[in-house]
Amino acid sequence: MDTTPHILIVDDDREIRELLSKFLERQGFRIAAARDAREARRLWPLGRYHLVVLDLMLPGESGLDLARWLRSQSDVPIVMLTAMGEETDRIVGLELGADDYVAKPFNPRELLARIRAVLRRASGEAASAKEPPAKAIHFAGWTLEPGRRRLLNPDDVEVPLTGGEYELLTVLVERPNRVLTRDMLMDLLRGRQAGPFDRAIDVAVSRLRRKLEDDGRNPTLIKTVRGGGYVLAATVDRAA
């Protein structure tokens, strides 16, 4: 079986599709490319994709609608391509479960770095490179199993997490009762500078709160610190 990461590129700009396809193939990836959502849906069952590079500004069915459909099919990582000024679409895309984004125009090497980082998070390579993880981490009745990258609710039922949600939760449970600013979280999660209007962390926290059944208007587990950031307000116990 070919284990080379298989990437689906969805962009209506032929020049960008061809440029990215050739560039990523030279980096060792297998590539499939679609010019719109209809073609992407046709290609989807034909390959086991490890990641989707998705332009949000597609003709016909929008990239946001396609992202919603992809999320209904699997937890495949999604890296969005957005216009420089389209902050609203970027935020909605992150709320739908996209893992990262790159604003157009972009440097292909920046996109490559983002793709590799998302694939590492999805595969758990970053965690396996460190010391063996604890068998289970317990907090507020919830259980996080790093070895299996899964979350169990107080009723012992698994709650699906995207790669980005899992990484955010891991960062929080490793630093309980400690205020983490948005810049700290951005650095810990993506290792990059966040722009002054970047709401990626706020969106990720909102998504994670929903998964943890933590009321966003009056959260008791992941609390917002005014002018500071976020804090996981819970006692964390680690199983040996």
TrEMBL record:
Residues bearing the modification 4-aspartylphosphate: D55
CDD domains: trans_reg_C
Location relative to the cell: Cytoplasm
One Pfam family in the UniProt entry: Response_reg
Domain of life: Bacteria
Gene Ontology cellular component annotations, sorted alphabetically: cytosol; protein-DNA complex
Primary localization: cytoplasm
InterPro entries noted in UniProt: CheY-like_superfamily, OmpR/PhoB-type_DNA-bd, Sig_transdc_resp-reg_C-effctor, Sig_transdc_resp-reg_receiver, WalR-like, WH-like_DNA-bd_sf
This protein's UniProt keywords: Cytoplasm, DNA-binding, Phosphoprotein, Transcription, Transcription regulation, Two-component regulatory system
Domain OmpR/PhoB-type, chain residue ranges per copy: 134-234
Biological processes annotated in GO: regulation of DNA-templated transcription
Name of the protein in its database record: Regulatory protein VirG
